[in-house]
Automatic annotation (TrEMBL):
Belongs to the glycosyl hydrolase 43 family. GO terms for biological process: carbohydrate metabolic process. InterPro entries: ConA-like_dom_sf, GH43_C2, Glyco_hydro_43, Glyco_hydro_beta-prop_sf, Glycosyl_Hydrlase_43. This is Beta-xylosidase. The record marks D133 as: Important for catalytic activity, responsible for pKa modulation of the active site Glu and correct orientation of both the proton donor and substrate. Keywords: Glycosidase, Hydrolase.
Length: 528
């Protein structure tokens, strides 16, 4: 399936973002000819996605370092905004090391010889609330260190970086820690966080953002001593560009990888060139401002992007899908093709609370997602396609005592119940319906549904623009952020408590890009 967003422009250059998707808080290392990127994943399972590139522009999703969140029982239900915050990735002593924080429990370490896995079970090395954004440093003399920031929401303060001496295997600290950088002592600095620690050209460097994810900036700090006084300088800020809050990322070779907060789209990833001034300070982008286009760091290699749509080969979802909590056996049922989901009973009908919503990141600024649904289940069951954040909307089938209905509903108040976006439409109990979600600029989701034609073998490319023709249901919804993540595009099947035995069958989930012409009203398209 083709990519919705491709950063490689095909002429030796690239456009930003290089990853248009919620690959938040990226960190990158280079090992030989290969680059590896990891990102925070919060309450999504599996967590800690691992991506691979040979040019820092084209990326493939190659696995996850965390198959389940720990402590297991805590994450049996969705805990929005919790879980895996900003991690660090390093290659040392022949192994890959990921150090990641859970702001409610502490700092964990997992390692692997191959970044595709297997990864060791996460080991808690620093327990406590509010410890976030850790990064290790192994010095040339064999000593190891760890720096981290603080989450005010958990411990009551922030804007400082704390460092520890560590055992070389990062199993435990060797001291009680020290304040390495106090943001209060830096004029204009607030919410200092996300440190990444390096040693280059006789200097120790800490790259750390401040100012918050939406409107912040990036510091570089340097010292001749690993635990000495660090001198700060702002090296990247929005300036006159449209790239808000450019910060938190990785310094790799002569490039800087960082994110930009795009609201419901999540934190998308940008790539900036890095030069140095006469005093050896890094200069990022265009004299400290982000660039939108540039020549690629390295030429050659395949043009690619992380997957989005899915054929569900063998009835199994691809690696782009995650759950909002630790999954349980029985949520997915065997099927040769397409996806079969069990209608899992759940006390709350609010899809923000339901753990068995299979979701993926919004893959680009404009796209169309399409699948068909058949619901074989007793009254009290429902299934469909959802766009979910702190508010959500869904389209699909609802089996009620009085019959089966094609519905489009939303829950757009923090604790409010669902309401119909359009009046429900009665359909036969064995109906198969085609569900379409078209996302346009500013993450507006346009839902449409129509009866599927059993003999229709046309692919989605042949049906472009047809989803709204004669549709039984149409409605729109402005997607919103989740808990520190972008909106999620998902599939679900649920039931009221005490109702069991139902299942929902989804055909391959087709995602395609859309053009400006397809966004015109139907009458305009017919006359063009």
């Amino acid at each position: 399936m083709t990519s919705v967003w491709t950063a490689d422009t095909g002429d030796g250059g690239y456009r930003n973002p290089v990853l248009f998707g919620d690959w938040s808080d990226p960190d990158v290392v280079r090992v030989g000819r290969d680059f590896y990127l990891i990102a925070s994943s919060f309450n999504r399972v599996p967590g800690l996605p691992v991506l691979h590139s040979t040019d820092l522009v084209n990326w493939r999703l190659v696995g996850h370092a965390l198959q389940r969140l720990v402590p297991e029982a805590v994450y049996a239900t969705p805990r929005h905004g919790c879980g895996v915050w900003a991690p660090a990735l390093r290659h040392h002593a022949g192994r890959f090391w990921i150090v990641y924080p859970d702001p409610d429990h502490g700092i964990y370490v997992t390692t692997a010889v191959d970044p595709r896995g297997p990864w060791t079970p996460p080991r808690l090395v620093l327990a406590g609330r509010g410890l976030i954004d850790p990064c290790p440093l192994w010095d040339d003399d064999g000593n190891a260190y760890l720096v981290h920031a603080w989450a005010k929401s958990r411990c009551g303060f922030n804007n400082r970086l704390t460092a520890y001496r560590m055992t070389p295997d990062l199993t435990r600290p060797l001291d009680t820690g020290m304040v390495l950088v106090d943001g209060e002592a830096i004029p204009g600095c607030y919410t200092l966080e996300g440190p990444k620690w390096y040693r280059r050209d006789g200097w120790y460097w800490i790259f750390a953002p401040a100012g918050g994810v939406a409107n912040g900036w990036q510091y570089a700090m340097r010292s001749r001593s690993v635990l000495g006084r660090y001198e700060p300088r702002v090296v990247l800020a929005q300036g006159a560009t449209e790239i808000n809050g450019p910060h938190q990322g990785a310094w790799v070779d002569d490039w800087f990888v960082h994110f930009q907060d795009r609201g419901a789209y999540g934190r998308v990833v940008h790539l900036q060139p890095v030069t140095t001034d006469d005093d050896g300070w890094p200069v990022i982008g265009d004299r400290g401002a982000p660039v939108l286009h540039h020549r690629k760091p390295l030429q050659g290699g395949p043009v690619c992007a992380p997957p989005s749509g899915d054929r569900f080969t063998g009835g199994v979802p691809g690696p782009q899908w995650t759950w909002p909590a630790n999954p349980q056996p029985g949520w997915l049922l065997p099927r040769g093709g397409g996806l079969r989901m069990a209608c899992v009973p759940w006390p709350s009908g609010d899809l923000r609370d339901v753990p068995n919503v299979l979701g993926q990141r919004l893959p680009g600024p404009r796209f169309r997602a399409e699948t068909t649904l058949r619901l074989d289940a007793p009254a009290g069951s429902r299934a469909g396609v959802v766009v979910r954040g702190k508010a959500y909307a869904w389209i699909g089938l609802d089996h009620q005592t009085g019959g089966t209905f094609l519905v489009c509903r939303t829950a757009d108040a923090p604790d409010g119940p669902e309401r119909d976006l359009v009046p429900p439409v009665a359909v036969s109990g064995d109906a198969e319906v085609r569900l379409t979600v078209t996302v346009t600029d500013d993450a507006v989701a346009h839902f449409a549904a129509e009866p599927a034609e059993p003999a229709d073998r046309a692919g989605p490319a042949e049906r472009v623009g047809r989803a709204g023709l004669g549709a039984s249901v149409q409605a729109s919804f402005s997607a919103v952020v989740g808990g520190w993540i972008g909106a999620t595009l998902g599939l679900f099947a649920t039931a009221r408590p005490g109702v069991g035995g139902g299942q929902a069958e989804f055909s391959p989930f087709c995602i395609s890009g859309i053009s400006d012409v397809e966004l015109l009203p139907l009458s305009s398209r017919e006359g063009s």
